[in-house]
Amino acid sequence: MKRRYGEGSIFKRKDGRWSAQTYITLVDGSRKRVCFTDKKYETVKEKMRNAQDQEHRRIPYVKKDWKVSEYLDYWMSDVQPNRIRETTLRLYSGMIEKYIKPTLGNHKLSQLSAYEVRMAINTLEDRGCTARTRIECLKILSACLNCAMREELIYRNVAQLVEKPKYIKKETTIWTAEQASFFLNSIKNHPQYILFLLLLTYGMRRGEALGLRYCDIDFENGLIHIRQQISRVNGDIKARELKTANSRRTLPLVTNVRAALIKHAEKNNIVMSAFNPHTHFSTQGTVVISSAGTPLEPGNVIRCFTALLKGTGLPRIKIHAMRHTAATVLKELNVPVKDAQLILGHSDISTTLNIYQHGTPDSHRTAISAIEGRFFGESERTLQHTANSESIAV
Predict the structure, then answer these.
(1) CATH architecture of 177-320
(2) How high does pLDDT run on average in the chain?
(3) pLDDT at 1
């Protein structure tokens, strides 16, 4: 009986091995005949059937059988540098080399299964890795496999099928408005007072406050333009683009900040450059400077803050918690969430609501007192009114 088109053929070679041949479609759309060879008939038959099954489902055939480690290297060198920041790239690289490659690197990309990924995550747990580390590994692997799917090297992302380890995030410690005010008053004469004033008043990110220049401030119209950030990249302090498109924003220049900016310039003999909306990224002319007149080292901000906290009696918080503090104060002042999102420069309003705005004992007390008033205040008034009515009737 004559074979139909696309069925493929299996035959025995002169050297005693079996060969199976069939036609497949490559990623570029071209057609090619592939040949599978093995000592066992069942092996070549299964390989041919898998290729034909993939062909029927219109999944392109991949010429190169990548190992997971090989594709991770390609993804990090050719894909990610144009998409993520240098700091994130270094973080990913460290996680890949330390955790992902040792557990999954030798697996074939096309044959990677959810079971193998889950076992790798379990292995990391056995080695003492925290839940947060394991979740980050899954996140990086999933992003890499998504890229492989887009390039039609695999047809599903098995990392997304693996359940994330349970992780209870620690509650961020923040200050109340009164504590923030006390801190600012206690450091009013410190050289870096302006930095912490910006962080607490506007909820700026550390890099945004360090990157603010006098040419970004429109004193005439009372506006501050957040246009760049400063960070340490590969050993150098650089001015660079902001975290997201929404991070580029315009904020009102309030009275106290305006006065502090002018006083800071006079005290440090800074010539305030005129507002220029077209200035490119630069480390020159920043508001926050070191004692040498250069942009302040991001790492020194933490050391400075730790020293300033000593003796104040205030709860110890992280620098980034000042951003959380500003967001929560906005909530307590009943500022609409959309406005808070735009002030903080968040891409998604859910980030403002679910991560940065916190409940406080005072807001909880106000809420529960309101419930108490509804339960008992109105009930007592109703009972008193009823009792008075009965007395009149008698």
Answers:
(1) Orthogonal Bundle (1.10)
(2) 87
(3) 46
